[in-house]
Amino acid sequence: MLPGSIQITGETLSGAEVKDICDSLKENSVRLLSVRGCQLSDRDFGRVCRGVAESHSLAQLNLNLGVVSSINRTKHLADALKANRSIQTLFLHGSPLLDAGLVTLNTAVSTHPSLVSLDLGDCLLGDEALRLICGMLPPDGAKSGLRELTLSANPGITTKGWARLAIAVAHSSQLRVLNLDYNPLGDQIAGMLAVAVASSRTLEVLDLEGTGLTNQSAQVFLDMVENYPTCLRVLVLAENAISPELQQQISDLLSEDSQMILLTSGLGESLLAETEM
């Protein structure tokens, strides 16, 4: 029987429910575990982490919306990730990790052999955390790194931190999707990101929704997609002070480029399907 999924949202988990989750993890019958926004005791959280450590089938772990609520829980999660070999996607959106939490998780996440997608949106991160995250985007010729990274709504990161990320993105050998929505980036940081996108040989999706951009940023991106080859296929600029006309021009050009890539690559519908997964 193929592994299934356990998805629970916003509930208070009893000891019996936690036991069932742990048994399923240890029996390798779970591919997706989601307990987003759930309440459980520290003891039970530790039990779930031990189950995660022992699982060989778990590919996606969703602990969004405050489940990882303390440094003690972060340590339990780090220990589980060090032992686990199967997780590909980890969601921690809305967890009060702070930089200290990322320091605790860093080794386990950056050395995990399978992890390719990480959501750290709204985790109260700062520049120290971002420095560590940049280490998860190794350059060409180095170890494999993240393919998808979400850093939405982390307003504590400064211009210096974002500049460091732009450099890492420019040289990353793996990153395909970068979500930076709802950060107060502004036109200066957007300009740095445009250079990173132009340099990247892998980045296909960049989400800059609600990031304080103006037509100035849009003009830079338009110039980039008009005049330079890029892998970018999707650029989200909604909820910014950017004219609909400019947004449409960029979107049209990216759509044309995507079609050209598909026609010349010979991958056709299979590549589109992979992008939409």
Key features?
277 residues, alpha/beta, nine-stranded parallel beta sheet, 11% strand, disordered C terminus
What topology, given as strand order, has the largest sheet? 1-2-3-4-5-6-7-8-9
Main β sheet profile: 9 strands, parallel
Tell me what portion of residues adopts beta-strand conformation: 5-15%
Overall 3D geometry? Answer: elongated
Percentage of residues in helical conformation? 40-55%
Could you give the distance between the termini?
A: 23 Å
The overall strand count is 9
Question: What does the radius of gyration come to?
Answer: 20 Å
Class from secondary-structure proportions? alpha/beta
Number of helices: 10
Task: Please write the string of helix (H) and strand (E) elements.
Answer: EHEHEHEHEHEHEHEHEHH
The mean pLDDT is 91
Question: Would you spell out the secondary-structure blueprint of this structure?
Answer:
Elements: E1 4-7, H1 15-26, E2 30-34, H2 42-54, E3 60-62, H3 71-83, E4 89-91, H4 98-110, E5 117-119, H5 127-134, E6 148-150, H6 159-171, E7 177-179, H7 186-199, E8 205-207, H8 215-227, E9 234-236, H9 244-265, H10 268-276
Parallel strand pairs: 1-2, 2-3, 3-4, 4-5, 5-6, 6-7, 7-8, 8-9
